[in-house]
Amino acid sequence: MKRRPAVAGMFYESSVEALRRQLEECFAGVPREEIEMKGAVVPHAGYIYSGRVAAAVYARMPPAETFVILGPNHYLAGSAVATSAAKWLTPLGEVPVDEDFVDALRGSIIDTDETAHRQEHSIEVQLPFLQFTFRNFKFVPICMSLHDEDTAKEVGESIAEAVLKVKRRVIVIASSDFTHYEPDSIAREKDKRVIDAICELDVAKFYRAVREVNSTACGVGPVGAMLVAAKMLGATKGLLLKYATSGDITGDRSSVVGYGGIAIV
After folding, report:
1. DSSP class of residue 135?
2. pLDDT of 1 higher than 90
3. Can you tell me the distance from the alpha carbon of 225 to that of 220, in angstroms, rounded to the nearest whole number?
4. Could you give the 3-state DSSP secondary structure of residue 62?
5. pLDDT tens digits, residue range 128-162?
6. Which residue, of 60, 127, 199, 221, is most buried by count of CB atoms within 10 Å of its CB?
7. Is the Cβ–Cβ distance between 86 and 114 less than 8 Å?
8. Cα separation of 243 and 226, whole Å?
9. Tell me: the pLDDT tens digits for 86-133?
10. Nearest to residue 129, comparing CAs of 247, 40, 257?
11. How, if at all, do strands 170-175 and 39-42 pair?
């Protein structure tokens, strides 16, 4: 069973050569010194908008045997919290799912449901960055259409428990953009509140900030789950590596989307 790309040619280039050039541009001038991460937050917009923010994290990420990628289910298709057993394809090749890890999740809130992943871009767009940076890795996609704190806690605990079962080097990545379609100055102010809570690894404070600023971040559940898992695996703080908005690219600051690249260490 293979999961074919849903957004190649839209969010990122569809040919091998063009995609490699696009990724090289994203990584150009980005520091490469590794940070010992347990987790991360990366954006999932088109590479032209958020690629350099994502690259700021991937360039500093150490290798791992397995990358767990949590993303929001924008289309609300399939199970509310779903992983996949399929091999995923991108223009750069095939990425295998860690079957042992998926097996270790059985019996948890996380179902195996390919329908949830078929058209969703939030996880797919991370794979070329990983393929460009690393060799011989596996991954575990987890798509979430539930974003409440209780669900995030249950998902994060299940991930951390699975990491301990499989006994291998795992990094947990949350795929999320931040504020959507507000003026640049307002987006930056709201996003700072939310990102500060993330960097404190304070899940309750993160959810409180989301509510208080009425954040339109799309990956609240994935970020919450990643924070829970990373803390259980020994993380103590977050480092904001890069923040930008779509206005930095388009020049239109009247209505922007915010992007944050955060290492959880």
Report:
1. S
2. no
3. 9
4. coil
5. 999 999 999 999 999 999 999 999 999 999 999 99
6. 221
7. yes
8. 19
9. 999 999 999 999 999 999 999 999 999 999 999 999 999 999 999 999
10. 40
11. parallel
Q: What does R_g of the chain's alpha carbons equal in angstroms?
A: 17
d(CA 225, CA 155) in angstroms, rounded, equals 6
Average pLDDT score, the chain: 98
What are φ and ψ of residue 261, in 5° steps? Answer: -110, 115
Q: Is the pTM of this model over 0.90?
A: yes
Contact, 247 vs 184, CB < 8 A? yes
Residue 214: CB partners within 8 Å, gap ≥ 6? Answer: 190
Which domains, from first to last, does the chain contain?
2-264 (3.40.830.10)
User: Which residue carries 């409440």 as its tokens?
Assistant: 148
CA atoms of 139 and 137, how far apart (whole Å):
7
Amino acid identity, residue 236?
Answer: T
Find how far residue 12's CA is from the centre of its chain: 16
108: which DSSP letter?
A: S
What sign does the dihedral 77-80-85-90 (CA atoms) show? Answer: positive
The residues that bridge with 258 in the sheet, in sequence order, are 245
Model confidence at 51, in pLDDT bands (50, 70, 90)?
very high
Where does 10-52 show beta strands of DSSP type E? 39-42
Interatomic CA distance for residues 181 and 76, integer angstroms: 21
d(CA 2, CA 258): 32
Residue position matching structure tokens 């930095």: 248
The residues pairing with 238 across neighbouring beta strands, listed in sequence order, are 264
Q: At what angle do helices 220-232 and 149-166 cross, to 10 degrees?
A: 40
Rounded Cα distance, 144 and 117, in Å: 10
Percent of the chain beyond pLDDT 90? 100
